[in-house]
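Friendly challenge for the regulars: who can give me the structure tokens for this chain first? No prize, just bragging rights.
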Amino acid sequence: MSVVKNYMNEVGAGAREASRRLARASTNEKNAALEAIAKAIESQREAILAANRADMEAGAAKGLDAAMLDRLQLNSARINSMVEGLRQVATLDDPIGEITDLKYRPTGIQVGRMRVPLGVVGIIYESRPNVTIDAAALCLKSGNAAVLRGGSEAIRSNQALAKCIQAGLAQVELPATAIQVVETTDREAVGEMVQMPQYIDVIVPRGGKGLIERVSREARVPVIKHLDGICHVYIDDKADVEKAIVIAMNAKTQRYGTCNTMETLLVSKGIAAVVLPRLAALYREKGVELRGCAATQAIVSGVIAATEQDWYTEYLAPILSIRIVDDLDQAMDHIRIYGSAHTDAIVTEDYSRARRFLREVDSSSVMVNASTRFADGFEFGLGAEIGISTDKFHARGPVGLEGLTSLKFVVLGDGQVRG
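First reply, four minutes later:
Bragging rights claimed.
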């Protein structure tokens, strides 16, 4: 047995044992652990930032691209967001043990469903150190143990955060193996994690397409995932122009390297000549490269001709594809063919068209008159998210507390037997 395999078996066995303790932890215990971790992060802020600076320097030396470095970087505001996320999760209702749909049957028994933890959640992620804290918070509150395997580029940041997690767990006497941050950067650890159904109940990959494809291909454990974030904003000819400009700018330029960033802008031909020149000027001020269809090129000079591949591309960069469409139906057809079922938005003042878009666009998040950047667990009021799922089972969209639980049937009787 290899050193990594042996280590991962120890991690998995520890997590499985800890999951039994977490499943019976009280709400007060879990909330106290979250607060203790938050305070530990606040007290270790400078050490965390120093570790992150070392990761950033190493990443730049290795040639990581701008989007990857943006996801890797921590600053005071992002640390504040982690702390706020922990405390917000603590304020959320504890779903564990809740019994719903309790009904009497003709036999006299009562049948209902109880919400329970999944058990052990494995998260494999790249770059973003904040995932370490988001995952720890949600897994703790939902009564799950967690095995967290971050990327090698964030190893120093993640280990600094792991110390805060361990300090918080110790303070409330929860087992250290309840939340484990994998210490090895060996890629073999990923291969082991996805093939340990005896220890891990579900895997959540967060990162680039290559990572998610590998996990999906090799996993013997159920996977909660999204493969691409090809998000669209459609500006309808019944849109408020000022509203459309603000939304389309935010959806693309608020952050480039996130999965809910708009990659393709669809514009109705009835409003294109009014809205596109203004948007193009604003995008160029931000340094965004524009690639468009022939109709777009006819309205806005200097636009690069979009290829078929552009409509399929998640840029994660200051590049935007633009297509002028005839109407709502053509816009929805484009999303159906080229989209990734992640997040799509319509800007319109027409109620009927908005309702059609909500009903007919088959994505995990569908929006009316709002930026795609809102497709986020924190913004949706989930406290934080473990990831975003574009699958239809077992969770869809941003995965918060309920997405990390399952339901089991419970039966309450008083001596009944089946005749």
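The mean pLDDT is 95. The radius of gyration is 23 Å. Your move, everyone else.
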